[in-house]
Fold this sequence. Notes:
Number of helices: 7
Order of helices and strands: HHHHHHH
Radius of gyration: 15 Å
Mean pLDDT: 79
Shape: globular
Low-confidence stretches: 97-102
Number of strands: 0
Helix content: 55-70%
Strand content: under 5%
Largest sheet: none
Amino acid sequence: MASECDQVREFLEKHKLSFYYQAFIDQGYDDVDQIMDIAKSTEEMTNLLQDVGMFDKPGHRKRFIAATQIMLSKIEHGEPGPSKQSNEALEDKVQHSSHFSQCKLNSIEIFQIVLLYSCV
């Protein structure tokens, strides 16, 4: 099982925010569960974003907030958090559909795809 720090690193890498990993660790944000709890509060999230130097980078800030909201939604609905494997499965699902309208995706999957491709 991955350590909490490894889970933070994986989460940031997955969302192309690994540049901030050391700042997260240096500021004590070394636990994904702690980060998800913080994400529930706008004030606490603002503090976290300022602490790690992401607040003044609107694109990075929006990407991080969207990623945490997706994970929170999945947790609240009893689904596992997002993983690299789930993103690959989503991409495969889209690529193997001849028409996007024929692809059966739920709203969270659509949001993940939009987020995934808007960051490329």
